[in-house]
Amino acid sequence: MASITDTPYLYACIAVFLLILYRVSPFHPLYGIPGPILFQISELPMIFFVLRGTHHRVVRELHQKYGQALRIGPNTVSFTSLSAITKIYGSSQALEKTSAYDLHLIKGEGLFFIKEKASHIPRRRIWNRSFSKEALEQYQHPIASQVENLVYWLVERTKTNGSIDLVKILPQYAYDSTNSVFFSGTAFHPSLLDSDDKDSIVNEASGYFGAFGFFSHAQPFFHIIKHLPGISTFFKFEAFATEAARRRLEKGSPMRDGISYWLEGEDDQPTLAHKDLPIESATLLIGGSETIGAISTFLFYFLLTNQKWLIALREELDHILPDESFHGTFGILDELPLLNAIIQETLRLGTPMPGLPRLVPKGGITIDGLHFPGGTCVSVPAWTHHTDKRYFPNPYEFNPERWIEGGKFMASRGTILTFGGGPFNCVGSKLAYLQLRILVVLLLLHLDFTLAEGFDPAKFWGGIRNRRATTFLEPLCIKASPRKI
To answer: Which GO terms describe its molecular function (predicted)?
Structure first.
């Protein structure tokens, strides 16, 4: 049996020891940036908390202990200042993405995975067309139609089962909405609401996104296992997205859906190559659905556990939209201060996310008076920022009034990182706001909600996990019934 004193093992042990020594020594470029010693030595501690889904909480606690610049990996620094947000994400010199965005098996080039700004800009222009004012107006009624189907199933499943779990049904609605708006319903059939997601599409997508979060801290491992036989089954969602793209191209669209804006450029506008549609479909199905499913779950959790805001919102809606069958121009919803403040406050408290990693360019940069060499990974964690009392007093209190000034909704009263920032910000943020407004308004106009007996808010909150995708260990069971006015 080989012993540790055998030459290869001895050399390996010496190499590991020297690497550890270097990472904590004054010779390392990040020496002096505070952080737990184990985090400075290895990615393993962060991987552990990512797998548990609690890394957003851990990073926040570490920032409280060590300050606004925190070393959370051998080559990774996390920040909490507004100036860091601007420097990393928001300025004209915003940093480019790291190699963490190389983690996919699906062929083609996709907006989410493009790391360089020069390559990102032309693809972003193609995406922008599907989120124009004209496009958003066309999406309003398909979205409303999916909400009406949700209303039906909320009532029916309450009748059948006595209650309904919003953790399960709201993501189903979110995927149906994306399917309708972007794929003209061709990505999957029947709808997830109608089939109760019999193929577990929501769980597969969540697992795929979670794998992305894990492998971003274990990139060498990903590049090894992706060559193993059968690993494609681990990325089953990519195969699903590829098939969704094929069906959309094969069946076409009877309406001007989101994908049609990519494939049918006008005049000299560039169009999306068909070979890139599968990877962009994966981005659509996750980015356009996972966020809405999670945020809408948070939103109804906050409303149902803070009844004064639910009552106040109903009053605002009843005053502006007295007809429960309202199907007018949804643009009026932009003007409702409390509705938009509630959505904004939900985005603040409903984003238990880590920081979006960015790469310091050659020559280095200075952030908050500290110089960082090229190749350093830097970020600002959304959850830490959103619960920082310097920017949001009483940060854990659900208080939509913090977004209202002079009777008007003021998004500028705080910086929200749910959709990122700068040139790489989420192109679909306006659609997300539209979906949330229509969802909340139509549900409250049509239904009465009560929490199921025995619901424990503290237990629900304690069961929130994030592995890039937000998951809930505890159900949010409610009873829904047609509204009595």
So the answer is: heme binding; iron ion binding; monooxygenase activity; oxidoreductase activity, acting on paired donors, with incorporation or reduction of molecular oxygen
